[in-house]
Amino acid sequence: MPELPEVETTRRGLAPVTVGKIITSVAIRERRLRWPVARNLAARLSGGEVLSLGRRAKYLLINVPRGSLLVHLGMSGSLRYVAQQHAPERHDHVDINLSDGGCLRFNDPRRFGSMLFSATPERHRLLKDLGPEPLGEAFTADYLRGVCAQRRLAIKQLLMNSRIVAGVGNIYANEALFRAGIRPTRPAGRIAEARLARLVDATRSVLEEALGQGGTTLRDYVGGDGRPGYFKLSLKVYDRESLPCMACSEPVRMRVLGQRATYYCPRCQR
User: Fold this and answer.
1) What's the average model confidence in pLDDT over 50-68?
2) What is the mean pLDDT of residues 234-240?
3) Is pLDDT at 231 greater than 70 in this prediction?
């Protein structure tokens, strides 16, 4: 599933070629996404200028005068800028046509993504209760210490809770915990403040490095320009079960935690 770096990579790639353009029309070939595409979506977008492209957690926000289109890429979706004359392919479900002859084309083989319009996105049910952005100023060691205090929940599950930190997905939670030397199963309330500070730094660094490499392509993800991400080459523990730890050579272990595959080094992480 595309995570925060992949969505931010998409945003950065699309902004220069879309902001300031007018949406001339919207072609919807398949409405059956995670939530059905609204019948009035084309009417709400058409004629509007793309004012900016934003991101909140794993949601891409296409901002127009009437509000914002919230785009989630789901399990396997992508949003790319292509020329309108390029014939749509299988799973190309929505085209947002622009005044320069290009379009934003939404492709989603599994149809688990979504496109929802909101006049007040900050109050939308999917966004209003999200926690601070992990790359933002509000995500600090003091903040994390406060939300972890007396919690028995495993630290990895807490880190992936979007109401606590917005947008840290499974891949990057695994990698950040490895960098911080914290075992994913450790109860959040039993981690010293200094170690939580290392986790904040590790979370920031792993996300920033992933951004620098265009995200992580495991199967389907491509950025707004159609290119894959290369952070997969830098993964230290994710998807490396039984392979030697890159730091100590101990075999990496995997267990299911909160219904998600969790990878860790039993020697380096405690």
Assistant:
1) 97
2) 90
3) no
In a domain, 129, yes or no: no
Q: Kindly report, residue by residue over 8-23, the tens digit of the pLDDT.
A: 999 999 999 999 999 9
The tokens for 187 are: 């109860």
Q: Which residues on adjacent β-strands are paired with residue 116?
A: 70
* Active-site position among 11, 44, 58, 80: 58
Looking from the CA of 237 toward its CB, the CA atoms found within 13 Å total 34
Catalytically annotated residue among 34, 111, 145, 260? 260
pLDDT score for 212: 83
Strands in 133-239 per DSSP E: none
In angstroms, rounded to a whole number, what is the distance separating the alpha carbons of residues 169 and 160? 6
Q: Which of 81, 91, 113, 90 is nearest to 1 (CA)?
A: 113
Residue 58 is a catalytic residue: yes
Predicted TM-score (pTM) of the model is 0.87
**233 found inside a domain:** yes
> For residue 124, is pLDDT > 70?
yes
Structure tokens given for 210: 């992933």
* Catalytic-labelled residue, pool 2, 5, 121, 184: 2
Give domain status of residue 135, yes or no: no
- In single-letter form, the type of residue at position 29 comes to R
Quickly count: other Cβ atoms within 10 Å of residue 53's Cβ. Answer: 24
Q: Which amino acid is at 162?
A: S
Residue type, 202: A
Assess whether 179 carries a catalytic annotation: no
Range of the domain at 219: 141-264
Angle (CA) 7-13-19 rounded to 5° is 105
What's the pLDDT tens digit per position in 165-206? 998 999 999 999 999 999 999 999 999 999 999 999 999 999
32 in any annotated domain: yes
